[in-house]
């Protein structure tokens, strides 16, 4: 089944408006265009680092900006989006020509993990679709909604194959882009994350900045069969959230970007609205769990549009255990 048929069917079953299907198809179109740019590598002429710094204090690449522009153009073609928050913009973008009372807000990271671009490593785009409040006015506040209220979320992974993974509240489903027909085909319906898989993903170079319970959890995993876990763990770190979360959706394990004391004004590295919250929805819709180690990610009340939070996402038993380490 292709994406368009799948969306028509799901929107009817879930009582979503056909406008949602139109919106997700526009994001899929953005994904195809970005995939084409990423696939050209240096030949696209957009892989150079710019002198500009984004709102996160990170150096921007031309590809970040081009991907952002592609997203805005594709969202703009639908006329159903009131406004959008992008990782690349300090303030939201509003679509002035869209229908009055346009029903949706979109938060997106147009090119996540872009430090991998120079290495031809896997990168992705992440998005979250929220309801626009009735009579919405242009303000950051309209985007500050709990993740539990997301209408849909997903990512596009630009890897050996381009894949689109989405949830509109009834499971998490993965589509593969057929390079011949340029159509996303449903290849992995209803993903299920095993409750336990002995593999963790963390940037271990930051160990000295973690809180004591996180230090203890990782030490216990590393102790393997001889330690309290009595189990040998494997470790993977792609430095690209889309790639790491995709692996966990496919075979289980846990992804961690925990609270980090190095920069005291940051609770974590990853952004709530367009990284942790949409990934949290995908993980929970696949039977996993998304936590900050102390609270459910999807219950967090955002305070700022670019807010960072700790992120512990993956196999439910492992995330439960990590929460227990933080309670004791
Ligand atoms: O900004 C996000 C991101 O690139 C994620 O995609 C990735 O998981 C993380 O940062 C990588 O962090 P680090 O540079 O610490 O490995």
Automatic annotation (TrEMBL):
Residues 193-326 form the Fructose-1-6-bisphosphatase class 1 C-terminal domain. Homotetramer. Mg(2+) 1 binds at residues 87, 109, 111. InterPro entries: FBPase_C_dom, FBPase_class-1, FBPase_N, FBPtase, Fructose_bisphosphatase_AS. One of its GO terms (molecular function) is magnesium ion binding. Keywords: Carbohydrate metabolism, Cytoplasm, Hydrolase, Magnesium, Metal-binding. Residues 7-189 form the Fructose-1-6-bisphosphatase class I N-terminal domain. This is Fructose-1,6-bisphosphatase class 1. Substrate binds at residues 112-115, 203. Signal peptide: none annotated. Its main location: cytoplasm. It comes from Methylotenera oryzisoli. Its EC number is 3.1.3.11. It comes from the Bacteria. It is found in: Cytoplasm. Pathway: Carbohydrate biosynthesis; Calvin cycle. Its cofactor is Mg(2+). GO terms for biological process: fructose 1,6-bisphosphate metabolic process; fructose 6-phosphate metabolic process; fructose metabolic process; gluconeogenesis; sucrose biosynthetic process. Binds 2 magnesium ions per subunit. The gene is fbp. CDD domains: FBPase. PANTHER family: FRUCTOSE-1,6-BISPHOSPHATASE-RELATED, SEDOHEPTULOSE-1,7-BISPHOSPHATASE, CHLOROPLASTIC. Mg(2+) 2 binds at residues 109, 112, 275. It catalyses: beta-D-fructose 1,6-bisphosphate + H2O = beta-D-fructose 6-phosphate + phosphate. Belongs to the FBPase class 1 family. GO terms for cellular component: cytosol.
């Amino acid at each position: 089944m292709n994406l368009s048929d799948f969306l028509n069917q799901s929107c009817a079953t879930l009582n979503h408006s056909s406008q949602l299907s139109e919106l997700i198809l526009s994001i899929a179109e953005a994904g195809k265009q970005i995939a084409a740019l990423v696939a050209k590598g240096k030949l696209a002429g957009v892989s150079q680092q710019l002198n500009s710094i984004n709102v996160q204090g990170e150096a921007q690449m031309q590809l970040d900006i081009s991907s952002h522009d592609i997203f805005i153009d594709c969202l703009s073609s639908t006329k159903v989006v009131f406004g959008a928050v992008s990782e690349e913009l300090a303030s939201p973008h509003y679509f002035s020509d869209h229908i009055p009372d346009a029903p949706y807000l979109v938060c997106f990271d147009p090119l996540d993990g872009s430090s991998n671009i120079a290495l031809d490593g896997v990168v992705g785009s992440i998005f979250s679709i929220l309801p626009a409040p009735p009579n919405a006015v242009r303000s950051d506040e309209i985007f500050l909604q709990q993740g539990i209220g997301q209408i849909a979320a997903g990512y596009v992974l630009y890897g050996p194959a381009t894949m689109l993974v989405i949830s509109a509240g009834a499971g998490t489903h993965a589509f593969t882009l057929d390079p011949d027909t340029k159509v996303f085909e449903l290849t992995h319906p209803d993903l299920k994350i095993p409750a336990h898989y002995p593999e963790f993903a963390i940037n271990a170079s930051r160990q000295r900045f973690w809180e004591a319970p996180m230090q203890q959890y990782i030490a216990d995993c590393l102790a393997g069969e001889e330690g309290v876990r009595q189990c040998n763990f494997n470790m993977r770190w792609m430095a690209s959230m889309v790639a790491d979360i995709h692996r966990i959706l496919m075979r289980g394990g846990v992804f961690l970007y925990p609270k980090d004391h190095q920069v005291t004004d940051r609770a974590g590295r990853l952004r709530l609205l367009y990284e942790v919250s949409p990934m949290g929805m995908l993980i929970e819709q696949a039977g996993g769990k998304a936590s900050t180690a102390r609270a459910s990610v999807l219950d967090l009340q955002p305070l700022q549009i670019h807010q960072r939070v700790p992120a512990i996402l993956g196999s439910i038993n492992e995330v439960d255990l990590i929460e227990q380490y933080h309670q004791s």
